[in-house]
Amino acid sequence: MAVETCGLTKRYGDYLAVDSVSMRVPERAIYGFLGRNGAGKSTTLRLLMGLMRPDAGTVHIAGVDVARDRVRASRNFGALLEAHGFYGHLSGRENLELTRRLLDLPAWEVARVLDVTEMTVHSDKCVSDYSLGMRQRLGLARALLGSPAILILDEPTNGLDAEGIEDMRRFVRELPDRSGSTVLISSHQLDEIDRVATHVGILCQGRLVVEGSVEELKAGSSAEVVVETASPARAIAIAREHGFDVMPEGDLLVARFQAREDLRSAASALNRLLCVAGGIHVHSLVPRERSLEAIYRNAPSMAN
């Protein structure tokens, strides 16, 4: 595993910020670390990087125990936490050269990371003239110095325009092949993770409540049917009375069915119940694809 934690815990007084988190990030995966603001993502990332000590549990980065050898572990990851910390009056190349010397890396490393991040053409411009997207790319180039096994990206699309967001998505998807690195990308924006991740972990109230490959999680999740009717409240009451798992969604209702159920047959049974037994006119029943959104939406119930 590229990253592995066991029982990772962090308290701030009586507040439990990270609650016994055991996560496994496979090598060369793009691992989406999801959670609402305040879920404990940033604290977990700091624990992974050795920037703070856990109250309990262990962290291994590329097989190295962070508590026992933080310096060696730190050589295995690069991090993009925000697109700042550059000298604006220096060029992108000169900024990278400063970091390269601090890390005592060979001179060719700067050219390599500029090529990987497609920043060579902009490398001799002053950073003060860079767009936010270019600064993000330069931050990625700096994180890639030394060929780290793991890249940690915290909200890498924050502040970018639509074109910059799409460009960053493409780049993140290509990173494992371009650099050979495992990517751990933290975000509270579901859409960003759904478009790039191969694996996902969902943090809720400090607990890791969902983890696995996106493909497996979607395959094992409940299927949903969105129902439009003139009497949604009455339809919900009747459906629940007969054992259907339904919930309101605006003026609609959503019926959930287990992954193993035949969705067509189950939806037909619900339609017959509402129309025949309930006398309710159903305008439409529309299947909703199994999605990361549905998994994320149901995550809070798993934390209780």
Quaternary assembly: single chain
Rg over CA atoms, rounded to whole Å, is: 23 Å
Reported CATH architecture of the largest domain = 3-Layer(aba) Sandwich
CATH topology title of the largest domain: Rossmann fold
Name the CATH superfamily assignment of the largest domain.
P-loop containing nucleotide triphosphate hydrolases
Would you list the SSEs in sequence order as H and E? EEEEHEEHEHHHEHEHEEHEHEEHEH
Report the count of strand segments.
15
Treating each run of at least 4 consecutive H or I residues as one helix, how many helices?
11
> pLDDT under 50 segments (min length 5)?
none
Relevant terms:
304 residues, alpha/beta, Rossmann fold, 2 domains, 15 strands
Write the layout of secondary structure elements.
Layout: E1 3-12, E2 15-21, E3 24-25, E4 30-34, H1 41-48, E5 56-61, E6 64-65, H2 70-74, E7 77-80, H3 92-103, H4 108-116, H5 132-144, E8 150-154, H6 162-179, E9 182-187, H7 190-196, E10 199-204, E11 207-213, H8 214-220, E12 223-229, H9 232-241, E13 245-249, E14 252-257, H10 263-277, E15 282-288, H11 292-302
Parallel strand pairs: 4-9, 4-10, 7-8, 8-9
Antiparallel strand pairs: 1-2, 1-3, 1-5, 5-6, 10-11, 12-14, 12-15, 13-14
Helix pairs in contact: 3-4, 4-5, 5-6
Q: What is the compact description of this entry?
A:
With 304 residues, the chain is of the alpha/beta class.
